[in-house]
Each structure stands twice: as C-alpha cells, then as structure tokens.
Amino acid sequence: MSTFYATKNGSSDYLPISSMFIRPWTTGDFGLYLRQNDDYVLYTRKGKQFTAEHRERLSEWGIQTLFIPKDQSGEYEQYLCDHLGEILGDEEIPLDDRSQAWHQASLSLVKNLFSEKLPRRHLYKRFEQLQRHIKTSMHLFKADGALKPLFRHLSKGFREYNHSLGVLVFNYFLLSSYKVDE
Asked: CB under 8 Å to 168, separation ≥6 — which residues?
C-alpha cells in the first residue's frame, strides 16, 4: 500500500466518518484517510475497492474513524445512500451508529429535495427515491430502543429539512404505538 501524506491541512478540510459505514468489497468515489497527529494519511484511493482485509487492519489498529476530504462529501453521501439498507441491517454496527448513518443519508436526500428547483418530472423521481429510502428505514425504526438515538441525531440540527425528518420519525413512532383496530 502506498502512503501519501496530506500535511498542513486543518481538520476543517476533512470530515470524520465511521469505518463501519464503508462496506467490504465496495468502491467509493472518495478517498479514505487516517489521521496521525495533525496529518492525514491516505488509506484507500478514490475508486479503489475497500476489502475485508482493510476492515481487519483497521480493527487490529483500533481505528473506528476514517476521514474523507470535504470536497468529496457529495460522493460519500451518495455512497451512504446507496448502501444504507446494508448498513441499517448490520446488527454488528451499534444502534447509535446506524441511527447516525440514517440521519446523514436522510439529510442528504431531503436537503437535495428542498434545495433545488426541479421540473415536476424530476421532482417526482426525487419523491420516489425518498419513498424507497423510508421503506429501507423501517428496519432501523423497528429495532428495540431506536427512538432515543434517532432523536439524539435529529436534535442536532434546526434547518427545515432536519425538522421534516423529526416529524417523520415522531409520526412513525406515534402511529405505530396504536393498535390497528384503534
């Protein structure tokens, strides 16, 4: 493995992500970096496959957080959305971390939905994407104890799209507390 150092970059140039969100045998259009003191060391190149060996090595080193360049955050958000079902279904990932993945992916989808003025046909496609996302989310919502970590992440933001997600989650849990015959 070649090592490249990205020095003299402040932490504001990189975003932390959970190493558990990077699925073995997948590729992302973003580089993965390790932090060593104030330097960032390239771990896997953009477009390179992340393998089980990569994950094992991180585990051996006790590394749970990777970093991506801020300018590749859009590519990471797309990767997270594409692999969200697998992440949410992986019970080896702590519930709080799965809730964080859901929150990040959901914010990205809703932010894109509300922030762009799209022609009606494109808007329908975005709503269909959001509907598929909500169906994927049910596995997480049905997990025991899911409400608390979800709201912990939802309470961090005050933008309208974060509020929309809070309303979605609150309504799901409220309505699921009723019996069908009520």
From this structure: 134
What pLDDT is recorded for position 181?
Answer: 58
Closest CA to 36 of 14, 58, 1, 5: 5
Q: Where are the beta strands (DSSP E) in the chain?
A: 5-6, 14-18, 26-27, 32-36, 39-44, 49-50, 65-69
Do residues 130 and 109 lie in contact, with contact meaning Cβ atoms separated by under 8 Å? yes
Q: What distance in Å separates the CA atoms of residue 162 and residue 148, rounded to the nearest whole number? A: 16
Query: Beta-carbon neighbour count of residue 149 at 10 Å?
Result: 20
What pLDDT, in 10s, does the model give residues 46-79? 999 999 999 999 999 999 999 999 999 999 999 9
